[in-house]
Structures are given as structure tokens and as C-alpha cells.
Automatic annotation (TrEMBL):
CDD domains: DHQS (cd08195). Catalyzes the conversion of 3-deoxy-D-arabino-heptulosonate 7-phosphate (DAHP) to dehydroquinate (DHQ). It comes from Microcosmobacter mediterraneus. This is 3-dehydroquinate synthase. The gene is aroB. Residues 176-319 form the 3-dehydroquinate synthase C-terminal domain.
Amino acid sequence: MNSILAKDCEIHFNIKAYEVLKTHLAEKNYSKVVVIVDENTHQSCLPLFLSRVESDIVFDIIEIEAGEMSKTIDTCTSVWEALSDLGFDRKSLIINLGGGVVTDLGGFVACTFKRGINYINIPTSLLAMVDASVGGKTGVDLGVIKNQIGVIATGEMVIIDTEFLATLPQNHLRSGLAEMLKHGLIADRKYWDTLSDLSQLHIEDLEQLIYESVIIKNNIVNSDPNEDGVRKYLNFGHTLGHAIESYFLDYDAKEELLHGEAVAIGMILESYLSYKLLDLSKEDLATIKTNIQNLYGKISIDEDDYEHIIELLKFDKKNSHGVINFVLLEAIGKPKYDCQAENALIIEAFEYYKA
């Protein structure tokens, strides 16, 4: 699999990637190297990584708690203090080995420690492989509000090793698939159609689909690195999806949703808005809803929840001058950014989701 040239870094795949990494480590001669893991990747992924690198370098290890609740400034402070205690300097390297929480937080720690040190992302979840690790977005949550603090800064490289996927439970694989479905909906109808019929896919097909998904995201990011325009397309399903994810995270009566599970709901809701406000056909709307709900089922969202979720929309990063902006679909593969919808129509979308 050929490497993909991203902005200021390259994305490498499988065994070839480790040869590139070993050459990079030798050439850079870093003063120290740390691997940031969470408690799950420490046990399930770190041994495989170390066996693949086969280096004489002594890797320091910093472990954080697994899960979205650890994606905070408090966790960053703990990691910054650990780096200081270990004697890290501006010529040191951070390797982020984990899912989106580890790559987002670890990248932010690297970008801010001593005003910036090098980092490398090695995503271990499907979600991180096709989304969080590509594009240079780093950051943490502010309370339960997603990704409010951060910077855009690319790492030295990204290594995607699909063997790590064997460590994932099924619900985490489905969570990552949501971002791949999104890539099809915003960029490539043929890709969407391929992913929509998973009964015809085999596990060996997944590697090529991941590769195509990374290309879709990378092409968009390269054309708009700072999200001034078309990079906003990547937020389809996320305006409502993030609000739903935050709401379910904050309310004890609700069971926490994985990111992809919330985005799956958001894609149905925002497809309904697309049908009402743009030119998305009724047939495509029905297909999107059916295919997504066949994969993810239907999450219980009560009428009493609507107002709380809509209130959280004001924190979305695409908003400007107090206006809530959505990415909607004129057709599958044809998105439009900076769209607005009245609250009454958003409530109508929730009713459609439940129907």
C-alpha cells in the first residue's frame, strides 16, 4: 500500500510504516521518546508496537485513563508534569498509540509542551485511523463539550497498522465505520454504496476501504487545512451528533454513546434537514436512514431531551456570530456548508428519526 502525502507529513501503512519510523528515529536522534497509551492500548497494542519497531531506543511510557472523560486539561497537566519529571526537552518526541482520545490529547500535549515538540500518531481504533489521526486537529473537551480547546498542527507522520483492529470490540468497529459512511455521503456515492452493503464485504476488504477513506479525508484537508471552507464538509452529522454525544455523556440517566454511534444519529437527522431545506431526494433520505439504522439500531431519544440537545448546539465550532451552521447534503456526494435550520425543523428531524 503506497504512502499518502498529507500536509507536512506522510501517512504510512502496515509493515512498511515501521521501516520508515525506524529510519526517522535514527535520523532525528531524539533526546528522548515517550509513548502515550491508555490502559487498554498499554495492554493490547504496546507489545505489538514494540515488537514491530525493534529499536535500541528506550521508550518511556505514559499511561492515561481510557475513555472520553479523560480528554481534559487535567489529564494534559498530568502528562506535562510527567514529561518534565522525565527530563523531556524540545528535541524529544511523543508517539501517540491509541484511539481518538489518545491522538487528540497527545497531539495537543506535544504542540504545547515547551511551545511545541514533535509527535507521531499511531491510531489503534478504526475511528482514529480514518478520522482523528489525519488532518492535524488536536485538543481536549471542555467539560462535556467536545473539542473546545486545541490547535491544528500536523505531526511528523501517521502510521496505520490494521492489525491493531483485532483488539477492538464490535461496537468500536461500528463506531469507526460511521466516519467512513460519512466520507461516502460527502464525497463519493460509489464508496457509500459499497459500505452500505456490508453483507457483501469480507474482513480483507476493510484494509482497502480504510485506505480510500483516508484519501477522501486527506484530499479535503489538503485543500483547506484551517477549515475556512470545504473542510467543514467533514462535520456532516457532527453538529447534532456532538450535541447528542455530550448530552448522553452528561446525564446519568442516559447510557454513554460512542462517538460514531452519536454521529450515526446526527447523519440521519441532518439528512432529514437536507431533504427539507436542500435537494436531497426522499429516496436517498430513506436509504440513508435505513442503512444507518440497520447497522446501529435506534437509540431512545425522548421529547424531553430535544431542548437540552438543541441548547448544546451553540457550542459547535462551525458557528459564527451566534448562528448555528450545519453541513447538509444537496445529494449523496454533494455537501453544502453554512446552512441554517429552525429549531422546529430540528425537532421534526428527531421525530423522523424515531418514526
